Structures are given as C-alpha cells and as structure tokens.
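Now read this:
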Amino acid sequence: MLRKLDSVLRSEMFRSLRFWLAVITLVIVVLKLLIIPYPWPELPPAACTNPPIDGGRCGFIFDEAHYIPAVRKMLRGEAANNEHPPLSKALMMLGVLIFGDNPHGWRTIITLSGAASVYLVGLIAYELTNSKKISIIASLLFGFDITSFNISSMAILDAPALMFSLLGALLLLRKKWILSGISLGLASLSKTSAPFVMAGLLLYTLFESLYDVEDLRLALKRWVRILELTGFVAVATMVAGLAVYDYGYGAFSTPFEHIDYILNYHSSLTFSSGDVVDMPLSWANPIIQFPKVPYYVVPPRMTADGKEYHPIAYYGMQTPLWWMTWIVVAFYMYLAYMKLRNGEFPRMELFILSWFLMNYFIYFPLAYLFHRWVYSFYFYMTVPMVAVGLPRILIGDKTAEFILYGLTLAQIAWFFLYFPVKPTWFIDFLLAIGAPA
C-alpha cells in the first residue's frame, strides 16, 4: 500500500509544472553560483572605489565598475550614482553585508533574482497558454539564453528590474492589480527602463477593456480604474522608495527632485554621427548583427600545441532565440488579426505585442530620431517574450514541434559553447572539435 502511494506521489510530482520549472531554475542557479568568483579582484576595495578604476584588476565585469564603487560609498553613508534608482544597489549592499565585499557579496542576490526570472517566464507562459509543454520550453529557452544569463550574473541593475517586471506582469494577468502595481514600482526602483514594461502592460489592459466592454465610456472608465490600482500604486511605490533613499542619504529635498534629475540625466545621453552605436535593428537581426560585445574577456592563453583559448569570457551576443524575434512579431500580428476577425479577443497576442512595442520598438525612435544612446543588452527585457511566444507558434504540428525541439537544443548548445567560465576538460573538447574556446 505504501509502495503504491509512493508511486502515485512520484508520478504526480513529475507531472507538476512547478516541479519542472523549479528543476530548470535550480540548474541555472547552480551554473550561476559556480561562476560567481570569476573574475576575482587583484586589488583591495580601497583601490577600486574612486576613479581611476582598473575594472579588470578590480574584478569588475562590465558596468560593475560603476555600481560596486557606488555600493561601497552607500555603505559609508554617501549618496552615489543618483542618476539610477537605488533598489538594485540596495540588494548588492545586502549581499555585501551578508557575504562580504567580494564577488560573492556583489553578485549572489543579483544572480538569484536573475534565476527567479526563469521560473517566472514559465509561469507567465502557462498563464497565457495553459500548456505545460509550452511553459517548460519557454523557461528552457530563456534560462539557456547566454546573453541573458551573463547580464543577470553581473552586479548590475538589470536582473532585479526584470524579475520584478515579470512578477508584476504575472500578477496583472491574474488581475491582482494592487500587488502588480507594487511589483512594477519595485521594478522602477531597480532600473529606469522598467516603466516601459508598465506602459506595455497598461496598454494591454486598455485593449482588453475596449474589447470586453462595448460602451467606449464604460470601457475607459474600467481602464482608468486599473490605471489607478496598478499604475498609481506603482508610481507611489517608486516615489516612496526614492523618498526613503533621499531622506536617508540627504541626496535630494524631495523624491520629485530626484526623478527630475534622473530624467534630465538620461535625456542628455545622446550620440553624434561619429559615434559607434549598436542600433536596435541590429539587436535581433540575424543578417546584420551587432558585433559580439566583450563584457569581460581575459587575454587569450595558449595550449601546449599552440591553440588559443579564453579561460574567462563574458560576451553579449545574439543567440538562436534572438533570431526568432521577427518571426514571433509577424506571427502574432497575423494571429491577432485573425482572432479579432473571428470575434475572439487575442489575449496572448496583444500581451506579447504590447510588451514588444514598449520594450523593444520604443528604442527605434529614441535611437534613430532622437539619437539617444542605446545598447544591445537593453534587449534583455524583451527576450522573455520571445521565449514565451515562440513555442506557441510551433506546438501542435509534428514537423513544427521537431523544429522547436531543434531550436531549443541549438539554444542550449549555444549556451555551453559560449559559457563564460569553462573547465579545462571542456576547453580541451572545444579545441579538439575546432570550436571557439
């Protein structure tokens, strides 16, 4: 009897979506924790707090050279890096207090928030499709996206911003408006681009209200109520968080002064005709790709037989998933049109298209018309929706599903090919087959 019960429990466990999402997330957590010590600083913190900063010898990856010195100053009670919201840096501070002023302290909590996004992507996919298969594949595609993995393994602002954004999106889909607003407010306290997510979500709820309620006035009234419960709460959460920071550090008289400073700073970041900028079209274009970005790459070393390899190499690059972006956009525009034509509300289609509009396409006018500096890693906020949208297109037809499984395997292979810190045996294997190492 007990053996039979144990068999049933095991069977139910392996059929559970949350079990498989937890397994995928745990794998990502382990891989992230393994690389946290790389690189390790050669110089003491005192030599890596004030300019000039040698990022390589300080053990900083990419923009950690901005944020870790700011965290050190904030731990001393100084206001620092005020052009960016404080929450992500506060999480880094918490890590330093727990694990010390070293890579474990800088990156552990950020790493965990990045891994949490993998789990949330799967839940959002299930909320939109009610399909365990689609949800698991979406989680795999995002979790094994090497650029997203690298970005969310560094002590920078992006991972907490995406985690809170995805949580806010999930809560919004479940119509938990106030909780969604709180989460989106925390996302805005993490990074200045997070309000774009909120704008996309509110745009989606506007479409939903206009479809559900035939009377335009009543539809707008319903949407304004959502705007109050979600948008206003998000803004209030962000303002309250800035007020706590500004009061504690004496940075600004009011949080509104701080917001004005942030907006003025970011609006001033423009490029000229001679600057080299990875424009938005190159972020997801397999034909015209932006050059591979070396976030942190040690000089090449030589094997005994004269082959070059990099023991540590964090890159930002397109992946097989990114190449699917325009296919997802085109299909979802078509599917939305067909559903509306048949009198059906295109819930998933409009959700994903609204997200794309405000988190990817928004950068086209900013870059091409207003010459605002943009960077390819901004696409990190859009990658989850490519991962959610692609499986739904290919699930259902046997041949299409084989293509999807092939793309998923290619995404995972790409991930390990460019994994930032490779063990010696894996480097030897890559060199033996003529792959980059």
